[in-house]
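Record passed on underneath.
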Amino acid sequence: MANVTFSSPVLARDITVYAIAGDRGTILAVAKAHKIPIPFDCQDGECGSCLVEVTHLSRNPKYGIALTEKEKEMLRQLGKITKAEIEAAEVNDMPPRYRLACQCFVRNEDILVKFEGDQTLPAQGAHITHAAKRFTGGIEISTVDEFMGYAVKVEEDAAIHFDELAGMMEGCGNAEVAKLFRQLAGFSRLHLAEAKKRAGSIDLTAVIPPDYVWPNHATPERTEIWAADPTLSRLDGLKAALQGERRGYEFYRAVAAKTKSPEIEAMAKEFVKEEAEHVKILEAWITREEWTIKNPTSANA
């Protein structure tokens, strides 16, 4: 059982309710069941109206969580998650201070949930990720040809980069991680082939963007510099790749939010879905790899 205490200026007093941990109930579901008036709208992590501040009251360490890209992006747009909290969530699965009640599941721990009222995004225009400016040099993608040029460049660069990293790992004798990077390069080439297929008859040589439009002359899916560390483990390699895929996800999401073309928006959203799947796959690999490291006997059985 978990004690969930709700606190808000709209309540006459704090209200503590009991929730059964493990029933996959979200904070919002618990609140609705007990008629706690947390504001909500979409109930799918898209609007930000159910923003809450969560304080962990249990003496035991916080439970690890897998913060979804959707929730993380909305918290960014609301200005309710710091760079350090993002890193803690991505590296150590530690939950940030603010959450979306519709995305935060109740665990076997006592928590205090504070909410102020309607926290929906203001209606003065589309809110986009920082990636919109970071990954397009401030240039708004205005044609389908231009969009496909960017998409091909992203996947092409990722394939080349993973092959380069594999070569570095082979050169220093790290065969395990070299094999992983070769595999990731192969996946990127499959994505590249799919992007070129979608491009059809478009002359990609005329629309592929130059290096200078990307920050540090690097496309979003290129991994961190430390991915070339010769002492890199397979787990480290997977985490480096995950960071690149997350940036790719942000790039396409930013394009979808910023373009004025319904056709480009629809295409970008398709790429967003694909990148989200890539992120999920890498997250699953990382989970499996961490389990293997913690349970070497079972893994070898």
The first strand starts at residue 2 and ends at 7.
